Amino acid sequence: MPRIVIIGAGLSGLATAHYLVKTLSDAGKEAEILLLEADAAPGGKMRTIRQDGFSMEWGPNGFLTNKPYGMELVEELGIRDRLACSSDLARKRFILSGGKLHRLPETPPAFFRSRLLSLPGRLRILWEPFAPGPPVGVDESLGEFARRRLGPEALEKLIDPMVTGIFAGDPDRMSLRSCFPVIHDLERKYGGLMRGMIGVRKERAKQGVKGEMSAGPGGVLMSFDHGVQALTDTLAGRLSEGLHLNVAVDRIERRGEAYVLSMSADGKREEMAANVVVIAAPAYAAAGMVSPLGEGLPGLLAGIPYSPITVAALGYRKATMGNPLDGFGFLIPRGEKRKILGALWDSSVFPNRAPEGKALLRVMVGGVRAPALAALPEAELLAIAREELREIMGISDEPVLAKTFFHDRGIPQYLVGHGKRLELIFGRLAGLPGLHLNNNAYRGIALNDCVRESRATAERIAKTL
Asked: What does the alpha-carbon distance between residue 441 and residue 10 come to, in Å, rounded to a whole number?
């Protein structure tokens, strides 16, 4: 019986194993499937920390229903009844501009009434249909795209905070095609963003799809009754027979037709042979593992950078906060010169994340904008987060809960040239049959993207097994 080893039991590794079991069973094939995880618990960054009645997300906040992959996995696992739908307040998102919070407009009429952008800035966006087309053969940055189509003020107050909220990155270095392929393709198909929105609306009408198009993120934000960890816990429970924790793989060699993994398990050095290997670990970890395989692969993987970020979770008594937390939260353009990237009002979006009479906020610090701040000692970082909340939101109350979660290499950065890098990486893999890479470092960082890529990886393996 062939052996398939998946290295890394975060969402990508767990979902790959799930779809392998399903796909192989449907095809009438058999294989031994092993999951090796270096940490003492599965789940990767999808962890929910519970303390004093609060539920704090260590990493991702949930997933959107604008793509089907997450919901399809939930249905397959039979845990739809455990879903927690975000409140309507999640639609209210804010941008800090001029020291004040401005609601991000969702519709064209609201946009032109908003004072988030100046009148010249709004008029410049109206000129978008006449903006020059994309440069031919160039992997354009998000910053270049925004300046060309929407103007510098839209870049500063709309695009920059959006990139901060998703990647904690720099729009002048991030690739439009790799970070937002839908927007990239929309311009090329319709000739512009406004034309694209009109075209998509017509297509939706033909298909009988109802509902207004919004400038904000599409779909509904979903989580689970006990936080996002419920998803990875469910997957890990179903795959427990083949899941091995505290097993750190550091080298993969090719010996004949098999791959031999060198690893440390419970303090002992071991080797294991496999017919198929899926590296579902971050790109920097994968780089070290494949160093014996050469072919330039280690350098290509190591060249994918990550932004450091710290999440500061702060719990307050609602009665003494002085702020109703009426919305999803806010993001901050770099031009505001603040020490935080923004804050999510978690318990307004998912009320079950704080006990009765309490509120939970998550403040983001660091990113490529201020990496040194993310690495500060907890006491200093919490002091910064509290001072920023006091100045921006008027919250001066003493928190009843204060905790930080530091991610030294938190979010992969899809820089200009990322697409070409992927071509080279997967071109090298073509000469290493049976070796696969599947992680959010490559083709999408969100939960939906990870599930989609995991299913595709499992189907490729099943076809060749």
From this structure: 13
